[in-house]
Design goal:
The structure is a single chain. This protein has a five-stranded antiparallel sheet with strand order 3-2-1-4-5, covered by helices on one side. 19% of the residues are buried. The chain is built from two helices and 14 strands. The protein is mainly β and 195 residues long. The radius of gyration is 18 Å and the shape is globular.
Length: 195
């Protein structure tokens, strides 16, 4: 139906997954058109359970076997280019809390340079609205010392820093707007893990 509506073929697929024991399978939707990042839509869930549980349960219960639509077929889930990470930052209860955040971490050597770009996409209602309250990018070293920080209200921001010592570094993206919002980080070096 989404393809008939005009959604591009590279933004919506039917996924067919098997559980770890390979005795049960399930089909579901994988799309990135509505909110700008890849997400699972669970068609078997009711409105209430689907919003809070079933999409997440599907993503961890099945190993993607294949994805297909009227144009393409491939094994595994849709992939992103190396060094590109899509994420959702949940609802924020700021100023009662400091906001909602997502973190990425990676081991870095002494003197390693990190460069990146954060781009905000659509909010949880599917709108590409402006940022209302300032958001923040902060990089921390293994001792939780701040090595880089920036705060502002733009929809994108590039950043860079150079490490002073080897260790695990974290990048936190903190959002204060109330609605959940989807974003993308492009970063070098690659191979960061999302916390």
């Amino acid at each position: 139906m989404l393809r008939a509506y005009g959604v591009p073929s590279d933004q919506v697929y039917v996924a067919y997954g098997f559980g770890e024991d390979k005795t049960r399978g399930h089909a579901y939707l994988v799309e990135k058109w509505y909110k700008g990042i890849w997400r699972i839509i669970e068609p078997q869930a009711g409105a209430w359970t689907g919003a809070f549980f079933s999409d997440w349960a599907t993503s961890v219960s099945y190993q993607d076997f294949c994805c297909f639509n009227d144009q393409d077929y491939f094994k595994g889930p849709p992939t992103l280019p190396l060094g590109v990470y899509e994420f959702e930052v949940d609802y924020s209860f700021w100023p009662a809390t400091r906001g909602a955040s997502v973190e990425f971490e990676r081991y870095l050597d002494t003197g390693e340079r990190v460069t990146g770009l954060i781009e905000w996409g659509k909010d949880s209602l599917g709108e590409a609205s402006d940022i209302v309250y300032d958001w923040t990018i902060t990089a921390y070293d293994q001792y939780d010392n701040t090595v880089f920080t920036w705060s502002g209200d733009g929809l994108s921001r590039d950043f860079s820093f150079t490490t002073s010592q080897a260790g695990i570094y974290r990048i936190e993206i903190l959002k204060r707007d109330y609605l959940a919002r989807y974003g993308r980080m492009t970063i070098e070096p690659e191979d960061w893990a999302q916390n």
